[in-house]
Structure formats: C-alpha cells, structure tokens
Amino acid sequence: TAQTQLPRPEEIQELVRTGLSACGVDFDSLLSAESSGTLPVRSPITGQTLGHLPGDTPDSVSRKIAAAQAAFEQWREVPAPVRGRVVQRWGRLLTEHKEELAGLVTVEAGKTPSEAAGEVQEMIDICELALGQSRQLYGKTLPSERPGHRLMETWHPLGVVGVISAFNFPVAVYSWNTALALVCGDTVVWKPSELSTLSAIGASALLRRAAEEQGAPADLATVLVGDRGIGELLVDDPRIALLSATGSVRMGREVGPRVAQRFGRSLLELGGNNAAIVAPSADLDLALRGVVFAAAGTAGQRCTTLRRLIVHSDIAEELTERIVAAYRTLSIGSPTAEGVLVGPLINEAGFRKMQESLEAAVAQGGEVLCGGGRVLAEAAPEAYYVEPAVVRMPGQTPIVEEETFAPILYVMEYTDFDAGVELNNAVPQGLSSAVFTSDLAEAERFIATSDTGIANVNIGTSGAEIGGAFGGNKETGGGRESGTDSWQAYMRQATNTINYSGELPLAQGVEFI
Ligand code: UN1
Q1: Which residue lies with its CA nearest to atom 6 of ligand 1?
Q2: Annotated catalytic residue: which of 232, 269, 413, 475?
Q3: What do you get for the CA distance between the two ends of the chain, in Å?
Q4: Is the predicted ipTM greater than 0.90, yes or no?
Q5: Active-site residue 359, yes or no?
C-alpha cells in the first residue's frame, strides 16, 4: 500500500539543518560559503536537490592524506587503551545525537527512522567493542626450538587507512572500520558515497570533536567530498597502507588489483546475492517474518538483503502465498511518514536496474507474483518508490545469479536438501545465507556446507550484529570487518625471536661462524 504523505521541501531542509547542527556543522554556511559547489546533495525521499557542495581536488586530497600521515606519527605513540578513549567519547556523542544523525541518514539514504537509528546504534556498538579491543590487541607467545629463546608475535599500528563506503550504510560501515583502525593506532581518510555526503560530514565532525576533546590530533579522521575520481586517488596513493572498500563487485575488481599493484593492503566488502532455504520442518510464522524483513526491508538495498528464496516444494505454495499477502500490507512511502516500512530507491538508475532485472526474469521464465511497479510517481516525480516484488523462477537462471540492488525476491523450489544448499552456493557472490528448519542435522549440515561468510539458522540474512566478523567469500571480496579478529587487518604483524641464552645457536641446526 502506498502512503501518499510526502514531506514538504522545508521539512527535509529542517531535518538536515538539525542533523548537521547537532554534529556541530552549520548547514547554511556549508552550502553558501561554498556556493561554487558542483556536487549535488539530494534526497531520494522527494528527489529534491538540497544544494551543492564543492568537491575535493587532487591537491586537497593530497594535503589531507599528508595531514593524516602526520597525525599517524603522533597517534601511533599513544598507548592503545588511551586511544580507546577517543572512540569511547565518539560513542557517547553518537548516543547523545543519535536521533539527529539518524535524521541525516533518513534524508540521504531514505531509511525509516527505526532503521536509520539502528544504523547509528551499530556505530555506538562498534565504539564500545573497539574500546574493549584497545586493551586486547594481543599476540601469541610460542616456544622456540632453541634453548634460551622465545618467539612472540606483536601487533603494531599500520598507517593511514582509506575507507570507501556506499550510500546504503552511509555511516555504520565507516564506523566499523574507523573505530577499530583508531584503537589500532591508525588514522583514517574517508571517501563516502557522493550520495550521502552530509551524513558523512556529520558523523566525521562528531569524531573530530571527540578527538579534540581528548587532546588527540583532529586529523586522525578526514572526509573527502567527491565522486569516484576522488576515491581513485585513495586507491592509487602509496601513503594509504590499507584500503577498505565497500561497494559493487565491479568496483572491487578494479580496486583490488590496483591496490595490489602497489603492494598495498585491501579489505573488500562487495556484492551479496543472499539466499534462504526454508525446509518443511520450519516454523513458518517465524520464517515469514524473517524473509519479509530481509527481502523488503531497507527497500532491498542492503548488501545482506535476501534475494533468493529456496523453499521445499511441500510448503512452497503456502509460504509464497503468505509472503505475497504480507507484501501487500507493507506500507510504502516517505520514511518520514508514520508507519512506513519501505522507503524509496536511491535514484533513477536503481529503479531502471530493477525494471531491467524484472524484464529479464520474465524473459527467463519467471512469473511476477506481486510488486515491481512504481508508486507515488505523480506526487514525487523525481523520487523512485517501488512495490517490492516476488518472482517465481523455474530455476536459477542468469538474472538470479546477479545482484540487483532493489527489492526483488526470486523464489525457487527444492526437494533434496543438499541440492538446495548447492543452489545456495551456485552464485558468484558469497556474503550471507540462512536456513529455516527445526531439524538439527539439517541446520548443522547447512552451516558446514553453505559457502558464505555469514550463515544463519532461523534468522534472515540481514541485520548482523557488530560482534561477529562481517564479510563474505568469493566475489564478495573476502574482507572481514567489525567483530572478533577483524582488528588484525588494521595492524602490522611482527614475529619476534628473543635470545636470552648468551649463545647464538642457529635455527635448523645450521653451523656458521
Ligand atoms: C551493508 O549493507 O553494506 O547485516 C551492511 C546487516 C547490517 C550491515 C549491512 N548490519 O544487514
């Protein structure tokens, strides 16, 4: 159901003004002092352009990287638990201004207030995790083969980390990287998506405030404003020790080799094409809710969005009917309106891609069971609202193997469980997957054989907690961010041999002078 109430342009302006000013940034001077700007700031809610920002230039990027490097020289000397206080303070500021920052995310990414607040909550959570991590940057100690020797492993700050992030999680993904990088002693230069620059400016301003309050160098966190060309400067700059990039597989295919060419380190978080298997023993009420949130939530624009439903043929009809019925009750419209669950697609390109994929699906034997069409086109001709689609497919055809960043759920059937898992695995991407089952052996078998970086049981593919490592395999890029051992990507590892024997025995029994 389409919810026709759209905000007036002034309401959007107000959300932006309040959001930025809570972060200590004056919107009017940001736009007016920089009226020569060329980078449009737009909201997908109405499609309106809020103004133009001046972009960075190759010179200003180079200066910012130099400043980040100078900040690194100081920052690396600060004890890690003391570094932790900056992220702790950032977390507190984020808690204080959660709603206002979420407002910016709503304006630029079109997320509902609940999902936008959830995104800021991820930032707060990672700050807490990183604070604890700052006292746990531990290495191993090992027995040496030589008498009077000891081996150990130590971890050291790496350098300047470049972060490239996408519009759909305009602030959380940055914070996963940044909170950890900072406690690891690194400094960060961030190139956010040009579609969500204001959220980035706000989030980063709060971090710089936290740094200043704690007497840390403010240049430990810098934002670059610009489009892809500006991001490429980070990719190719030898001063960027680690490049952490979130985006499409196409982007990663370009970025990975370019960073490798200069022997830089990269952490890639690319596309997903996530599936859920629903077995006959599943609790269908639970599966239904899990599927609908994962497939239609965030208007299908999460990298963890559920795109493929692999359902046992005994329950396929019942479950599909219930999903279609649930989809019909979803309220679509401006995320600023009460009760809306599905906001807009990011832009016209996203909408066109969705239409093309639906056409391809039909051409490949698919049957659109519901949704797919545009709504609110008259009320908001510059905005792209769609009804989430459910498409029954005769099998895993080429279009199903692609990630379309829009709410399309392809439904396929299985009869043999292992064949179902094979379908799950038979796509190039490997981010997230899920099984709904009450059969313990099936659940374990799924965990053992699903080839994705995240594999869930009785819960959807999206909405991961930050405590776990986040990332995927195959074309998803192999990077791991946020929890468990992900911090190690942001540090330089050294193996140290310490000799307290007073002799100099060589390893492997080699004799020399
Ligand atoms: C993304 O879409 O890039 O697991 C990240 C989730 C969120 C993060 C998604 N915690 O859906």
Answers
A1: 463
A2: 269
A3: 84
A4: yes
A5: no
